Amino acid sequence: MTLKISARKSDAHKKVAEIIKNGGVAIVPTETVYGFAVDAFNIEAQKKIYKIKGRSQKKPLILMTHNIEDVRVFVDISKKALEVTKKFWPGQLTFIFPTTETGKMVAGGRNDLGVRIPNNTFMLKLLREIKTPIFTTSVNVSTKNSSKSYEDVLDFNGIVDIIVDGDKCEFSFESTVIDMVQFPYVIIRKGCLNSNELLKYVIV
């Protein structure tokens, strides 16, 4: 049975945090698209997402936290890259950075990891409440369109543990993704953040 709760409810973030901490799978709204969310340290919960989506486990999930200090526990951010993150976070930009040893532990040994601090009131409250990073990926079956509204995610009613109603996502388009593992940096997904605006800050 799937619990449904409004993002406007004052304690919604606490309920979602509790479920995620206990190994559950949540569907949460962000400013880009809706996402599946699980505890980043729970391997079994991560596997649930892959099964629900029908997604290859070779494809990485995105790590979310609420501040840069926490992000740096999991990835190495150069001085230049740190300047860029401060301009665009919280926001609609996912960075790929080299993993630290701790990052490798949560990312299944990967040498790189996508990370983002979202600019969404509910998500920031959730991330502060849960006090641990979460892994996310868009709500959809692989190869299908991402969910951009509460109505879209109801296809997963009865499959996940909790669904948060955040109405329609503000941008309703995926985040832009830039690989900053090494120079030259590469925009590997054009999303709702203007790529030309980003390039002004990353071109050396």
Fold-level CATH name: DHBP synthase
Give the H and E element order.
EHEEHEHHEHEHEHEEEH
CATH level-four homologous superfamily name: DHBP synthase
Overall tally of structural domains? 1
**Low-confidence runs:** none
Class by alpha and beta content: alpha/beta
- Total strand count, please? 10
**Largest pleated sheet:** 10 strands, mixed
Globally, the shape reads: globular
| C-alpha termini separation | 52 Å
Q: How large, in whole angstroms, is the Cα Rg?
A: 16 Å
Contiguous helical run count: 8
> What proportion strand?
15-25%
Overall average pLDDT: 95
How does this model look, in words?
This protein is an alpha/beta fold. The protein has one domain: DHBP synthase (Alpha-Beta Complex). Helices cover 32% and strands 21% of the residues. It is built from eight helices and ten strands. It has helices at 12-21, 43-53, 68-74, 79-88, 101-106, 121-130, 150-153, 195-202; strands at 3-6, 26-28, 35-39, 62-64, 93-98, 112-116, 134-138, 162-165, 176-179, 186-189. Strand 2 and strand 3 form a beta hairpin.
